[in-house]
Write a structure and sequence with these properties.
With 193 residues, this protein is mostly beta strands. The protein has no helices and 16 strands. Strands 3, 4, 6, 7, 8 and 9 form a 6-stranded antiparallel sheet that branches. The two termini are 35 Å apart.
Length: 193
Amino acid sequence: WFRSFSLAPPMALAVQLKSFTAMLENGSVTINWTAEQDVNFSHFVVERSTDGVEYKAIASVLAAAVSRYGYRDGGVSSASNMLYYRLRMVDNTKETSLSQVRVIRLGKGAEALTLSTYPNPAVNEVRVSVPAEWQNKEVSIELYSASGIRVQSRKIASASGTEVVEISKATRGMYFIKASCEGKSAQQRIVKN
């Protein structure tokens, strides 16, 4: 009546992302990344969003015997003046993982804004590294559920390079941390364990 089975240890994805950048240049976004991979890795999917929540695949880049990759997203626009990019990494067994998100601000004075969070996944707290130009300024940090409901919000009168967000009372799942300063914002997806 009992079937034998074994639990295999979790396998690491067959790629390690070393760098990932997105830059606005002459109305197009240039995306570059470097990665180390083995023979079991299949491809990268470049994904874009206008709201930081719903992403669409815009390109697939097959794995090659190189470590540097790139993609140019031409003629970009967004009603929100913000574009969000991420990489989905797919190995030959169809296992996937996601990169961090890179944010592009369109319009006058456009620039890439990045928000780094660690650890990710997290249990009790997340450290948020804000852009250098936001340090010593008032910064608002908000935590949103995957469905877009604001769970937590606080204002920091004079932000340092890294701020701590307490998430111990949040339920397990996916969240977004959004930081805003002087009309600019950036966000990053996190997982609460």
